[in-house]
Amino acid sequence: MTDHTQYADMLALYALGSVDAAEAAELEAHLRTCPECRQELAALRGDAAVLALSAVGPAPPQGARQRFVAAIANEPRKAPVRQKMVIGVLRPRWLTFVPIAVSLALAIFSLMLWRTVSRLQTKLEQAQAQLMDTNEKLRQAQELVAVLHGPDSKDFTLVAAQQLRAPHVKTFYSPKVGRLVLVAGNLESLPPNKAYELWLLPANGGAPMPAGTFKPNPKGDVMMDHSMSAAGIEAKGFAITVEPEAGSDVPTLPIRFVGTG
Hints:
This protein is of the alpha+beta class. The protein is built from five helices and seven strands; from the N terminus they run H-H-H-H-H-E-E-E-E-E-E-E. The relative contact order is 0.08.
């Protein structure tokens, strides 16, 4: 479909009835499919009607016309006076309407131009407002990046003031040498006759094997270095129970910690 903006100039001439049949047919076909051009044509026809009415002078009163005709009839006739004939060029009557038509066309085009400028001004103001909003959002994003990644920025992790830190246990085990290291923190303190005991869970599904006993310090931290009874024992994981200080050969339920690889 042809863009209706291509018919902007033709609409004014069409409103004045100054387009040929082919152009009129093409424009009328476009008007059937373009509500915006139909609205613009209606506005132009209204403006043309207003200007045309303003260009027509008032008709003389009927009584004045009759008195004028009667005065001419009562005038005494005089002998005709020979006058010198001036030969000139007769102008067609339609030429007298050309200035009016041109003025009307200029007025319509001026009105169209004013409307176009008004629409462009509105769109420009909207674009400027959107640009200002985008710039403000960009500024805020840049400030956020500066806070998160600035050279002087520091991060702090906040926790509940009265909440205890969760206990954690980590083991490092080498089957080749049969030796392990346990590091733990925030463990619960135990009675004097109790201790934590680590159990190795064999990969072949055998019974848990004792892997050393330990007690945390008052802060709940501990590190244990323990050698197994033999090297080459593959482990699928470790578990921790609470046992007597001397340790046990079989885990006592419940299991306090467990981890498998």
